[in-house]
Every structure is written in structure tokens, then in C-alpha cells.
Amino acid sequence: MSALALLGGPRTRHAPFPPYPVIGEAERRAVLEVLDEGRLSTFIASPGAQFLGGHRIRQFEQEFGEFHGARFAVAFNSATAALHAAVIGCGIAPGEEVIVPPYTFTSTATCALMHGAIPVFADVDEETFCLDPKALEAVISPRARAVIPVHLFGQPALMDELQQVARRHRLRVIEDCAQAPAATYKGTRVGVLGDCGVFSFQETKNLMTGEGGMLVTNDASIAEIARLVRNHGEAAVSPGEARSYKAEILGWNYRMTEFEAALGRCQLRQLPEQNRARQRLAAHLTRALGGLPGLRVPPLREGCEHVYYVYPLLYDASVWGIPRARFLEAVGAEGIPISGGYVKPLYLSPLYQERRAWAFRAYRGDVSYAEGICPVAERLHRETMLLIAVVRPPATEDDMDDIAAAIWKVWEHRKELT
Ligand SMILES: Cc1ncc(COP(=O)(O)O)c(C=O)c1O
Known about the structure:
Elements: H1 25-37, H2 55-68, E1 72-76, H3 79-89, E2 97-100, H4 107-113, E3 118-121, H5 133-138, E4 144-147, H6 159-168, E5 172-176, E6 184-185, E7 188-189, E8 196-200, E9 213-217, H7 220-230, H8 258-288, E10 295-296, E11 304-305, E12 311-315, H9 317-320, H10 324-333, E13 339-340, H11 350-353, H12 375-384, E14 385-388, H13 397-412
Parallel strand pairs: 2-3, 2-4, 4-5, 5-8
Antiparallel strand pairs: 1-9, 6-7, 6-11, 8-9, 10-12, 12-14, 13-14
Helix pairs in contact: 1-8, 2-8, 3-4, 3-7, 8-13
The structure holds pyridoxal-5'-phosphate (PLP).
């Protein structure tokens, strides 16, 4: 086998991996139709204020809701906005606690701070990388009002166990499905297992509209509050009626545009096939890495469908004999995009360490953000997590073979890296 690229040998792969997202003809036509029609948002069109947005937005909401078997779907301009609305819709009060995993994107936790509530971090489980039900139970205080499980990297969280704890302690459950659209848990698509679910359509996501988000729920009150929060808190008006400018509650401008809705409708139709393609590529890569010591491929769980927003591997430096950083350097030099760690557990950032949000001023509890509170997340970040983002169409099985070949090559030559 040729020498490692890091040590002057030839690279396993020269060509870049195919870019994502792919904008198809259907998306192009759908966006042009919006331009031709000339109504880009329609939330504040006159005469006759449109509290519920333009016709594409409403169609997208209806289709997204039906796809999930949810009574209501409310479109937003991001998942962060939808999470904020979910916290308000679930009736969480300032000063109350919202339990979240620390190993996730920042807004899973900041959505609580935006409403004056306090994120409390509970550790993740090493199998799924999602919230650990035992860790959830251990951090519940009398101030706890909600939990936000995250279906991380496309893998559904341990929802039955989490829901049992939530029910025992009367916690509202907001699912963060940003990375797992159409992933299934025991046959049900994530998002409708808890009180409400939130999705992201940001450009890197499995279903993308550039920016965008959606809240789904079967709870009419959450849906109603979400629509108000999205639209300056102004009350609904029937089509044709004059706009009142009367704010019922504190609201923001979290509205989606018709462009995003047009893209979203196209992307939703393609989502099942796109996810199946991700699953085929992931299965191929898992087979190609089969038998490689010191790397744990993503486990398949009975009754769950992983949709591989990214493909996570666990690295064991004691088997490889080289630190993770050295492994990453060597695989990267072979022409393979791979990264380590994902996010630093959120509580370790200055926002929490120095309590840099107004919500902390009025808080009377004793939440801890000390290093060591979530050892599994800290270890994943520091030592063991590897992520490959290109396990998605338009990449092909040949691309997966290149990834596996590079990793096997580094394995064969690992002793030269010590
Ligand atoms: C788990 C998770 N939650 C929330 C978000 C926020 O999504 P958005 O960028 O649409 O606000 C993201 C985005 O990356 C995410 O990965």
C-alpha cells in the first residue's frame, strides 16, 4: 500500500466531494413562479391583512402537517424562531427551567433564555448521542417545566423512556427535530411524539430552503400562540378584514417567505427518497468499514430509522495508538472531509460560564454549568466523536469507497504516525 499522503505519499482522493445542496429544475421553476406572481411574503399584504401568510406558506404547512400526521404546522424563518415560539406556546414562565442536552446546536438551549427561562443541561447517552433519560431524571428540580430532546445527527432520541420521565414530573416535551426530518421512532415520524416538534430548513439540512423552520403539534393552543409569536403578536384577522395593529402578546417577525415555502414544498416531496439515499450510502460505508478496529460505526436500532444528517463514528485512541487529532490530520490529507468533536458542550461557553443573558438576573435556582456535569458529552467532544458530512446524495457509493479506503490506509500505516 502506498505511503500516507500526510507523509508525502499519493492522496487516496483528488476530486472534491460533490457540493450540497442540489437545486433541481422543480425548485428553480417553483421560485420563478413566486417572482412571476410578485407576492413574496403576503403576511402584511393589504387590503385585508393576511395573518396566516401567503398561499404557498399555507400549502406547505398543510402538506408538512399531513406528512407528520399532525393537526397543525406553523412555518417560521428558522428552527431557532420556532423553538422560541415552542417555549412560549408550552407555557413556560421566566425563571423556570428547561432541560436540554449540552451536545447540540446552541439554539436548543438559547430558546429558553430568549424567554427568560433557564437551560439546565443533562448528559447524553453514548449509544444514540441523544439525551439520556437517567441523566434527565437526575437534574429535575421543582423549577423544571420542560425538556427538549434532540434527535441528533438524524438519530431518534430514546423517546419512550424520556416521555415516561417527563410524564412523571409533568414536563412539557419539545422535540428538536432540526437534524432528523422524517426519522422514525417505532414507526412514527419524530416531531409528533412530544407536545410539539421543531424542524430546520437551513441550507445544510436534509430538507432545505436556505433558511426556514416549522413547528408541528396536535395542540391547538400551542399552534395559536406560535402563529401570534411569529407575527408580532397581532391577532388573527379574517381575509378581507382591516388590519387592527393590536398586539395580543409579545411577538416577533419570524415569518417565512413564499420563496422558502415554494422550495420547501418541492423538497418535502423528495424527502423520503433523499433520506433513503442517505441510508443506502450510510449502509455502504458501514459495510466498507466493517471489521476495522477502534472505530464504532453508527448502530442501527430496532424500530428506528436514522436519516444521517451526518454520519458519526466513535474513535478509540487506545486501539489506534494515535490521538484523534493525528488521525484526523492523516485522513484529511488523503482528501477526505472529516471532522472531530462536534460542539463543545454548550454550558462551557462564555454565555453560561459568565451568565451573559438577562434571564439569569431574576433566576433564583442553583443550576450548575461547571465542567464535568456531563462527562459523556465532554468525552465525545474531546476524544471520541468523528463526523463525516458527505454521506448524502449527490455523493455515490464510489465516494463512500474512497472514504473507507482512506481510513483503512491510515489504519495500515498508523504506526508511522506515532
Ligand atoms: C439541533 C439543532 N437545533 C436547532 C437548530 C437551529 O436551526 P436554524 O438554523 O434553522 O435556526 C439547528 C441548526 O443547525 C440544529 O442543528
